[in-house]
């Protein structure tokens, strides 16, 4: 069975010792992996938390974003240079956590839009930055898992087809892809086709309900998603990404305006649900 992880963004985006009791309880609940948001400036905290997870036997993955002033597809060369510096910093913090997978929409600034559809030049700029980031990631033993977001959060990569185009241009073995059921539920016609499209590059999966609450409580067709993952023999982590308003600054930044489900209800019921899906579909 694939390992199952949980993203602590359901509680906090801040890396500090305050999240250690959450990590401990996730391990006690039965999780084999934990995912952290890379953004906080306290470098020592990443190393302490990484050591703690290793001691517990938890596999670590990370997620991050880039902003307007560090946009890999900016027409300004100075901004693109800043984006590479930022990606290198995030890769280094991922290494401090002893993680091997760094995922997220690292291809372009989150929730920053141009007044046009994505252009060839933007894919070229993004691919150039990501190739350079891949070189740095390879030295750190990290693989980037780029994420396609829905149209309300990104315009460069909404689908697996667009993401594949970018990856083919980036041409680096440490620049790969992830699949998120929440975003795919909005943008893809069928999960099966989308997963088959991204299969050659797929290194990470987010299991996320349509409302970002408990997986299995909404309308996402998880049977199709898990069957497709089994068909391509996906062996990576299955990580629940769910949100709450526990961290108001983070919640405001991603448009989370209400509580979906209590985080521990999501964690406990979500783990049971994923185990059932894995058993049912042979993952």
Automatic annotation (TrEMBL):
Q: Which UniProt keywords are given for this protein, alphabetically ordered? A: Isomerase
Q: Does the keyword Cytoplasm apply?
A: no
Domain Xylose isomerase-like TIM barrel intervals: 23-274
Q: Which N-terminal residues, if any, form the signal peptide?
A: none
Q: Which InterPro entries match?
A: Sugar_Epim/Isomerase (IPR050417), Xyl_isomerase-like_sf (IPR036237), Xyl_isomerase-like_TIM-brl (IPR013022)
A GO molecular function held by the record: isomerase activity
* SUPFAM superfamilies on file: Xylose isomerase-like
PANTHER family of this UniProt entry?
3-DEHYDRO-D-GULOSIDE 4-EPIMERASE-RELATED, ISOMERASE
- What this protein is called in its record is Xylose isomerase
Its source organism is: Adhaeribacter arboris
Taxonomic lineage of the native organism: Bacteria, Pseudomonadati, Bacteroidota, Cytophagia, Cytophagales
């Amino acid at each position: 069975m694939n390992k199952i992880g949980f993203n602590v963004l359901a509680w906090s985006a801040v890396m500090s010792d305050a999240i250690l009791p959450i990590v401990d309880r996730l391990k006690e609940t039965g999780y084999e992996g934990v995912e952290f948001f890379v953004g906080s400036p306290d470098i020592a905290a990443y190393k302490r938390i990484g050591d703690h997870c290793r001691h517990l036997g938890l596999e670590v993955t990370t997620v991050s974003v880039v902003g307007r002033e560090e946009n890999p597809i900016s027409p300004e060369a100075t901004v693109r240079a800043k984006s590479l510096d930022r990606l290198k910093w995030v890769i280094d913090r991922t290494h401090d956590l002893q993680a091997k997978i760094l995922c997220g929409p690292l291809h372009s600034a989150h929730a920053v839009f141009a007044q046009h559809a994505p252009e060839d030049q933007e894919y070229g700029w993004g691919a150039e930055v990501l190739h350079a980031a891949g070189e740095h990631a390879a030295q750190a033993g990290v693989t980037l898992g780029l994420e396609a977001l829905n149209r309300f959060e990104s315009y460069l990569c909404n689908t697996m087809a667009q993401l594949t185009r970018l990856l083919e241009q980036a041409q680096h073995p440490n620049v790969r892809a992830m699949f998120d059921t929440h975003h795919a539920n909005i943008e893809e016609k069928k999960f099966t086709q989308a997963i088959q499209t991204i299969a050659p590059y797929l290194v990470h999966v987010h299991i996320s309900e349509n409302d970002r609450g408990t997986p299995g409580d909404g309308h996402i067709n998880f049977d199709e998603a898990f069957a497709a993952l089994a068909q391509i023999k996906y062996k990576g982590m299955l990580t629940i990404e769910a949100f709450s308003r526990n961290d108001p600054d983070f919640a405001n930044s991603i448009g989370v305006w209400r509580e979906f489900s209590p985080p521990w209800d999501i964690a406990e019921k979500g783990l049971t649900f994923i185990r059932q899906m894995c058993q049912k579909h042979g993952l």
